[in-house]
Write a structure and sequence with these properties.
Radius of gyration: 32 Å
Strand content: 5-15%
Largest sheet: 8 strands, antiparallel
Distance between the termini: 64 Å
Helix content: 55-70%
Structural class: alpha+beta
Length: about 725
Amino acid sequence: MPAITEKEKENKTGALDIIFGSQHRSLKALLNRASKCSSKLLNSSDGDTSNQLIACLSAFANSVVARCSKTLQIPTQELQQRFETELPESVKQPSSYAKNFLEFCSYLALFQLSRRPDYLSKKEFRRLSYDVMLAWEAPDAESESLTKETTSGSNQQSEDEDGWSLFYSSSTKTAVQVDEEKTVGPEAFARIAPACAAVADIITVHNLFEALTSSSGHRLHFLIYDKYLRSLDKVIKSAKNASGPTLFSNLQLVEGEIILDIDGTVPTQPVLQHVGISAWPGRLTLTNYALYFESLGVGLYDKASRYDLATDMKQVIKPELTGPLGARLFDKAVMYKSTSVSEPVYLEFPEFKGNSRRDYWLDICIEILNVHKFIRKYNLREVQQSEALARAILGIFRHRAVREAFRIYLSQYKSLLAFNLAESLPGGDLISEALYKCLSLLNTSAIQDDVPVSSSAEQNLKIFPVSLFTLSRHGLILQKEAVMNGEAIFPVGDVWVGETNPLEMAVKQSIWHKGKAEAAQATVDQVKVEGIDTNVAVMKELLFPVIVCAERLLLLASWEDPLKSTLFLLLTGFVIIRGWMRHFNKGKPLEAFRVTPPPHRSAVELLLALQDGISQIEGIIQSGNIILLKIRAILFAMLPQATDTVSFLLVFMAIILAFCPIKYITILILVEAFTRQMPLRKDSSDRLARRVREWWIRIPAAPVQLIKTDSKKKKK
């Protein structure tokens, strides 16, 4: 009997292996057959325009160029001739000829496809743009053979290691495992995707790639890319349909004002507006100029309250705690404060788990606020202003599309919002300056039927507002004159054939510094502790040397050691006699300190104010602890470069104090402090303050270990 049982077990196990193995093979064959069929459908009509293969291109790159040729209605030989005659010699070197020629053809073809209505919903555009990325990674025969060898090895390994896990993964991951050889890397995506302004922005393209590939091993599969474009198309169409006649009349939008998103229309996901201790549900709408809230009345919405984001009104938008009767209980609100409102307004986004809705609205509101700050800073007008707004609007659409399609959270250093990213990245002001230089070169006067991709010198003279034209093609009009002038223009924008424009260089430089800032921020997050008592305990430990110094001063004052007390008294007396310490009051009677008492409050308001004050004190103590921990890190050289910088600064200050009279130093400090906002010094002062702030952010906090006392010992 036992032998029969073991044999039955072996038979059952073998049957299961056969079933799952056949299912695995059938699933792989099904997906491979589908990909082959799609390739045949796309390549079936290439014969008319391919004419002659390009010798230096790989077979797949030749097929992509042939499809570009068909889209443009231009023979491949003519495209190659234009590439040879119109572009500089620097992009026609043998080592990069195939890749640059592929970029030349694909930029022209993608622009031509993007001029068609609803191009994001067309399979031709989605497949061609993805195949161009695949061909970019293997443009010539040598790179294609190397790629095949690498992918075949990885596929063999994946077949051996996948096993049963294949059937427990998501559909997207399963497809990636089965068809792993056809994936795109970050460099190809960064070179091709920004050619279409709706798909990607050159400032945030690397963050977009990380967001799309966070669950697929940092390789982009077509299924994920296709899902992203479908979601983006849905978002743009919903924004276009949002400006209906009813909503438009309720909000009284001005010309060029576009509705970006609406929330609070679903009963299960309300938006509550808190003013004082009162709260009311309603509908929240964000445009490219303001935030609107319409309180819900009896079946209808009341007149909208407008909270301006465009005009300089000292606006402050930040996350905040809210609750019933003004209690600070739930971290699900956005606070808006400006000179146009008498008291802060709190917009709460209730949800059972997390605060993703609040974070999303906080990010997009700050993006609109930042783009208008950018416009005011560089005094942008007309087309330049519209192009900056269009870039921010498209970034919000992409952010919303990724959020709705993949449900992922992006940190401040990985944001898909260009102006938010420029504010948060180390050296982000360099990105803003490079963007301003690009906007200052905008040209909408040249109306030609077909403007080729030209050399860098000519490109610098003909840069077009591609984001503005993209919005116009989707039916979202910011500036009618730009639409009329841009109908037949090829946009030479952020991507140049075979070259890197200054904006892309500034982005790469900032990304290089991002790693240190993220590592330092991680240490800060680790040392943050909750509770006033815990923060006070941490601060006591950090201030222990100061406490010890105070105790020693008291010991000297007690004269327990007469010799030390005498020496300290003589030294202090010498300092006072030399005039290093002066009395400014000189015996005059001290006037009373005048204080205006606050208005009378009820018991509930006093309790809420007490709770708010305690929360603020906890935040101050927490911030103080972080400052002390960073100082400790500098003293113990956790970051040697920062310690060296502080050491040189202290030596320099010591030399100044040793050789320069105090009164001159005081005058110098006074002049420096009062001339920071002068027109001649404002830019340099702001730049210096930003550099110091970025330097401070990159300093990690010293580690903290909380040792909990044993409660049993206390009871004894």
